[in-house]
Amino acid sequence: MMRQAIATGSSARRTLSGTARVLLALKLDGPLTVGLALTAAYGLLILFSASGGDVRMLIGTVLRLAFGVVVMLALARLSPNLLRRASPWIYGAGILLLLAVAAVGHVHLGAKRWLDLGPVEFQPSELIKIAVPMMCAWYLHERALPPRWWDLAALGVIILVPVALVAKEPDLGTAALIAAAGAVVIFLSGLRARVLIALLLLAVAAFALGLRFLHGYQRARLLTFLNPQAHPLTTGYHIIQSQIAVGSGGMFGKGWMAGSQARLDFLPERTTDFIFAVVGEEFGLLGLAVLLLLYTFVIGRALYLAMHCPDTFSRLLGGALAVTFFIYVFINAGMVTGLVPVVGVPLPLVSYGGSSIVTELSGFGILMSLFSHRKLMG
Amino acid sequence: MPPVRIKDNWREQRMFVRRVWFVTTLMVVAAIAVVARLYYLQVVRQHYYEVLSVANGVRTIPIPAARGLIVDRDGEVMASNRPTFELELTPDEVPDLRGSLQRLAKLGLLHATQIPELIRSIKSHLSFDPVPIRLQLSGSEVARFAVRRFEFPGINISPQQSRWYPLNNLGVFVVGYVGPISPSELAHINQAAYAGTALIGKSGIEAQYEQVLHGTNGYRQVLVNALGREVRRPGVLARQLHEKPPVPGDDVILSLNLKIQRLAEKLLKGQDGAVVALNPWNGNVIALASSPTFNPNLFVRGISEKQYLALVNNPDMPLFDRALRAQLPIGSTIKPAIALGALTDGVLNPTKRIYAGSDWHLPGSDHMFHNYKHEVCGRLGLNMAIIMSCDVYFYQVAYKMGIERIGAWLPNFGFGRPTGIDLPGEQSGLAPTPAWMAKHYPHDYGWYPGDTVILGIGQGAFMATPVQLAHYTAILATRGLSFQPRVATALLNPITHKIHWKRPVLDGNLTMISRASWKVVIKAMHGVTTNPRGTAYWDMINATFPIAAKTGTAQLTREQANGDYNLKATPVKLRDDSWFITFAPLQKPRIAVAVLVEHAGAGARAAGPIAMKILNAYLLGPNGKLLPATPRARYSMPRSIEPRVDAGVDPTLTPTERAAKP
What we know:
The structure holds two protein chains of two kinds.
Chain A: H1 2-8, H2 10-13, H3 18-25, H4 30-50, H5 55-77, H6 80-104, E1 106-108, E2 111-117, E3 120-122, H7 124-141, H8 149-168, H9 172-188, H10 193-211, H11 216-226, H12 237-249, H13 260-263, H14 275-307, H15 312-337, H16 356-372
Antiparallel strand pairs in A: 1-2, 2-3
Chain B: H1 9-44, H2 46-57, E1 58-63, E2 70-71, E3 77-89, H3 97-106, H4 115-123, E4 131-137, H5 139-147, E5 155-164, H6 172-175, E6 178-180, H7 183-188, E7 199-201, H8 204-208, H9 210-214, E8 218-223, E9 243-244, E10 251-254, H10 258-268, E11 273-278, E12 285-291, H11 297-300, H12 305-313, H13 322-325, H14 335-345, E13 354-356, E14 359-361, E15 368-370, E16 378-380, H15 382-388, H16 391-409, H17 434-440, H18 449-455, H19 466-477, E17 481-483, E18 488-492, E19 499-501, E20 506-509, H20 515-530, E21 548-554, H21 558-561, E22 577-584, E23 591-597, H22 603-619, H23 655-660
Helix pairs in contact in B: 10-22, 14-16, 14-20, 15-20, 16-18
């Protein structure tokens, strides 16, 4: 309590420097902003190398980052109350957009994920990534915690409807992440241990059942994960080549722009899903450690902010956003190093393309809003 | 009724914090898993992945080493390398494939009928890898293409190293030849050492010294991307590329004297036969000829089936190396060996004269052994028996010696075993013993005394090769020293120009034979050329230096053995083989020669004149006088070793253009 007062109280404000004053005025959290900026800068450095020195790709990413920052600033300025009240509408809009995708979506690479909005294409699943935890937090905000059975049932519906729609696209990776985001909210809301275990068992059963309905390539990915050497040139190629890239980087890496796996096209998806391997190849374990420390800092700060939010909605949403961010990093790193199956999850703030950077920065914008406006909420 | 639940913000916050800590613990565990995994990949197994990563992007292109030359003792090149040229097409760079090929066909560089097949083969290659579309262009074809080269983008002339035998047939059984590596050879060689090489030594020195001649391949590494395309400007990635220059093979310096070799082949021309001339003091082969011969250049790029069948089906067997492989009865040329054995064993008194009629029969048997052409030798001792080559005398010598003694003596003179000459495929001949007979003819009646008797005149189961006979002659010339015959005397490192001389191999010294015995036998061999009754008298009548010689007439049928013989009436393939052995000068011999002419009748008739011409050519100077004796083991640096042909020079450039290029 004391610390809070000191950090944010009027007596302390006079001693703050100019930069901090600006951050405060913008409702941004200083440490988190710095962490995000460093991570994004590091990401640009890596992307430039991974793309083989492609300046256009770099500029595109800078523009996306800029757009993401604008969205983040905007969201940070919004009051949490507004965000909370808007949650059902955002969620509803997301569901409608997903339905629109199913109806008139743009087919790309065999999956119907995009909505063609004239000059830009838009992935509604990116919106729903944030909308689902918002909706869950909104739902639990009024209710006494831990949630009851019927609450869980309602949350299950809230989560599974968009998950099913996204999984149908098909985009299993995103669907799983959306489900995870919702599940994190439920977990943070204080679910009892025995209920948790029951749900876990249910999830395992659902997974086993779901395996039977997987697409051929999805099942192949899973099986390949278990034994990549069985198909070194087809389904196992990604896993093998990315591990070669990471492993050959060694302790200090081959040097910036000097990773042969990336430069000679052996590493697939090297600017997007497998960019983590480029870091490993060119900067080695040391470079990866730096990246992971930056992520740790960002996640740690985000959790800190979430813990110090005054109301249920903010806490649950903030915590979910932070944990979801961790899950992205973990799944991407795990996939590249062969710890988890290959699922199309980008490395947050570093991977090229898509709307994910905007989504991620939006999430942090919301988080900052939740934290920086907290004293306004009694 | 459930208790009323009231929202308790403070409690919920504490619960939330607990949950966050719990999640944080999970996250830390997961993070540790990732870091542990990274540590495993990047530290524990770094080397493993490093190797895989290099293997991915680095393609190693072998640079074949230049094959060593084979030169005669004066440095004249007998086997060299020359560039051949082939047309290469890079599919990526050819705008109109079919049209280009059709225009090439119009130029006469391709057959119009090949085009569909070529297109199919080109399409099956990677689009950026050059495909050879025409091998072994002739000089005029290269020129024809060169002037129209601008019309053919993506088609280039590519030089390749190929073996070339500038002297064609000359010395082919010594030099041998190279040919495409066969599947069975592929199984035995170190394939890495032969990457980029299509040729391997098949026979002769080329096969015997394959290891030395082949050299060590170098390599050059290029960077390739995931599609296999070479990265032209690798930038920083170039530092993982290595290059190793090839080490050319050593040149092999032969002991051959090409003047004598040329003469020997000329003298044998049109006949089936062989000539082997040795330096008796070190075993150096001065000439080794077999007739007929063939052109080794035919084999270098793979001989056509038609040409090969023509060689194989030729009844004179031009591919057959008679000098090393023809195992034949050697007739009376064996007599000096029998005499020396008998003298040493004390079963022959050289001065005791006995009467030798036209035939002789074994004691206690009525089987008759005839003299050649039923001649009557009269009363004679060993000297005249050798001079006249009296069979009846030697029947008795052999009979007295018995097979055990003869069987023990023959190997001393190098019979029945390979001489160890440094050429592949040498046959061991046959020096029969009763044990051998029992082993190989178990159902026959064993060894008869008659078998021993005819062994005394080099007939029967006894067989030897021309090189064995030359080796034997060299042992007689040195009075007992047996040097292993050898063709290669030295290896020349083409980079350091250092010559590694091989030491002669002395593998026997017949010290048990007394000087007196040598004197008797060699005097008789000299008599063969000087005594008017000597079998080689008329061959050597014009000799200006003393010569020792012995003729041999090897009979191939029983009728001949019985002496009922009429040369003209006998089919060519059944006529006697003509043998001749000689060394000169008599006291300090410099050359030992064995000559075989198949189916040519008596030894003095066909083989003798050849031997005499070789002695004259080797020993006489241009003024017709005996050359001064050169000190033994005098070697000199070969006079000239032609510079290696540079494969990197584009033949389509004019000399000025070539000079302009760096």
